[in-house]
Design a protein that fits this description.
This protein is α/β, with parallel strands linked by helices and 348 residues long. It is built from 17 helices and eleven strands.
């Protein structure tokens, strides 16, 4: 039978990771980089589960063999294509019969197989522990359109530790944030993606994160990480309104009129009926800049209100006229002076 590994050894092991849970389970959340390699389809898994409850374990196991048996050749051929060197890591939900059964099949076919003790459930415990690990953080704030995401990318290019919350969520963080981007992951998978990167970031250097609310689109920032963000020092970059409008028009100019109107309608209650209608009329007329001017007024007021509500005074750095690369270099040079306090962390 395949030899089980603990979560740390499993993640650091060699060979592709095959997730033998059903496609639906995989879609909800999986180990980043793992390949969906289901022993059962969603319907087959449901049938086996129903059989277990209504008839018993032995009958459910027999049904499982009936379903999986004819697929064995297909499993072996697919595994060969994924792992020519015949080394594989396999997991299911709890590290039980599904991963054990698939591992047994592939071992008979000549593969070296390791399973994950405790399965994906053990991995999810690892995610929670990883996200709770305290690290130094520096928050990058700024009003909508300040180019914070572009600056984060340039900070990373300079070798600064960066965790891009929006990139992993496939969302820019506003009502318009999903436009022109792929679908968002589930919150569970978002946590997996964050934990994978968080675990690799240094503990002794400040990690740059963009200021965010608890949700980035439909994805929720885990409490363990958000608590550290709330306690961390921050610096705010400041750009002229014209530059911010230029950036927003550049980003969203490729979106369709229908998408832009739908995103504007989502903030109707907060923007107000008259301003919403005015913004929509500008969008319909092809004047996105005028629409963004109206919408930015709402986001700017919301940004300032949030700072006042939390009684936070954040040092500012004027980057008007600077490229994202020059802004990043200025941040690296000036932040220790204008924000000298050491990054705070949440006790472990």
């Amino acid at each position: 039978m395949p030899s089980p590994l603990n979560i740390d050894d499993f993640l650091q092991g060699s060979g592709p990771i095959l997730d033998v849970r059903s496609p639906g389970e995989y879609e909800h959340g999986h180990i980043p980089g793992a390949v969906s390699f289901p022993l059962f389809t969603d319907e087959e898994r449901a049938n086996v589960g129903t059989h277990y409850k209504q008839v018993g374990r032995e009958a459910a196991v027999e049904l499982g063999f009936d379903i999986a048996g004819p697929k064995c050749g297909e499993f072996v051929r697919a595994a060969k294509a994924l792992a020519p060197d015949r080394h594989l890591r396999i997991h299911c939900w709890r590290g039980g019969m599904r991963s054990g059964g698939m591992g047994w099949i592939l071992e008979l076919a000549g593969f070296t197989v390791h399973t994950l003790a405790g399965g994906y459930k053990a991995y999810r415990h690892w995610v929670r522990d990883a996200l709770a690990s305290p690290k130094k953080i520096m928050i990058l704030g700024g009003m909508t359109g300040s180019g914070k995401t572009l600056i984060l990318q340039e900070l990373a290019a300079l070798g600064e530790p960066v965790l891009d919350l929006e990139a992993l969520a496939n969302h820019r963080g506003s009502s318009f944030g999903a436009l022109l981007l792929p679908p968002q992951p589930s919150t569970e998978h978002y946590e997996n993606l964050l934990a994978e990167q968080w675990a690799t970031l240094p503990s002794q250097r400040s990690i740059w994160l963009e200021a965010e609310s608890r949700r980035v689109g439909t994805c929720r920032i885990p409490n363990e990480l958000f608590a550290q963000m709330e306690a961390a020092p921050a610096v705010e970059v400041v750009r002229s309104l014209d530059e911010r409008l230029d950036l927003l028009v550049d980003i969203y100019g490729e979106a369709s009129t229908e998408e832009l109107i739908e995103a504007t309608e989502r903030i109707r209650k907060r923007l107000g009926g008259d301003r919403t209608q005015s913004a929509i009329q500008h969008i319909q007329a092809g004047n996105l800049r005028a629409a963004c001017t109206i919408i930015l007024d709402y986001y700017d007021r919301a940004y300032r209100y949030d700072l006042e509500r939390r009684h936070r005074i954040i040092p500012q750095l004027d980057i008007t006229g600077l490229s994202p690369a020059d802004s990043a270099r200025l941040l690296v040079a000036k932040t220790p002076q204008i924000c000298p306090q050491p990054a705070q962390t949440v006790p472990a």
